[in-house]
Amino acid sequence: GAAMRTEISTAAAFVTRLLRAAGGIGEEQLRCFRECLQEALREHYKHHWFPLLPSKGSGYRCIRINHQMDPLIGKAAGMIGLSHERLFQLLPSELTLWVDPFEVSYRIGEDGSICVLYESPQPGGKTSKPLESRTSCKEEWRIGRASPSKNYSMMTVSS
């Protein structure tokens, strides 16, 4: 249980932050959403968490919105009265969140870059890829809410 606490709270806080950035949801509802999502993730990952083989079960733990709402996010949102339709308006239409032992990362849009939210060294001295080799995307989720769909061209307005 305690092993995956940081990863799960990182993932839940991230989704909550996306909802907060979209606006219109009260802090109390957001807090409840975050707790419900953490609980749902804990339950979902209980028998699918392998610190010695961090990538094992990664697909099972992956949270995904791709024109279908991830059931765990949907469940937590339902607890605060948010419909799937409303969630689709608030969250990126394409979001992938990987919650693995020692690393939580996400990608917005199908060809967006993968951004690391949390990373900790694995016990046993195996160091993961150096962070410098990755683009830091802390700000990226603020800029691009979703990748534009192929059927329209982006119009840029110069200031």
From TrEMBL:
InterPro entries: Anti_prolifrtn, BTG, BTG-like_sf
GO cellular component terms, A-Z: cytoplasm; nucleus
Domain Anti-proliferative protein, first and last residues per copy: 91-110
A Pfam family it matches: BTG
SMART domains noted in UniProt: btg1
GO biological process, one term: negative regulation of cell population proliferation
Assigned protein family: Belongs to the BTG family.
Protein name stated in the entry: BTG1 protein
Lineage: Eukaryota, Metazoa, Chordata, Craniata, Vertebrata
